[in-house]
Amino acid sequence: MNETTKTTQTMQTIQTTNDDFIMRPTVDVCFAGLMENPKVRKGFCAAILRVSPDKVKDTELLPTHLQREYAGDKLGILDVRVRLLDGLQINMEMQVKYYEFWDERALFYLCKMFAEQIKTGDSYEKLKKCIHVSILDFTHFPEDTDCYRTIGLVNRKTNALYSDKLELQVLELKKLPKEIKTGEDIVNWMRFLKGKSKEDFERMANTSEYLGEAYEALQKLSADEIKRLEYE
Known about the structure:
alpha/beta; 39% helix
């Protein structure tokens, strides 16, 4: 085999590798990039809220740096922070590696989001619901097989809801079963976020127009040289 043939084959291999490259949404740069797409954001927010996407009228990306009142306050940087038209806020955190104090971190972020809504002289009536969504690629609750759960403030004795203004959702991607019988949108989104190949994403893209939009956005991100450098 001469050098020209070797060079040609090498270039073909590189081209094939580039063509096959697809980002994984579990990398925070990719996940944040996907949520910049209004339609993708709308579909995912609807899944989190367990409502039809047509019920979500508008979504707005907010700054991800939490405010610090004093110089010594701990800095909080969110992955994706969204506000809906009615004022409800959702913080979405993607975490791949095990984090020992994840519960404490989630509560810190949630409470900071909630408290930032009002200033001196404002009525507490202005406070809107805040949801912290943990998307975890590790097992956080090893005692059961539930892949997602919703946690709120309840009366321990009666299980009656105290307030719906603070809510935590935990999505454990590692617990997704191979065969999912439920038709819930949030599980379909979890399956998409867990995808590793074009085949995985294409399969999920066929289940809804919003996941189809997410796959198109993922392809564009994967082809963007600057975004790819950030990803790498």
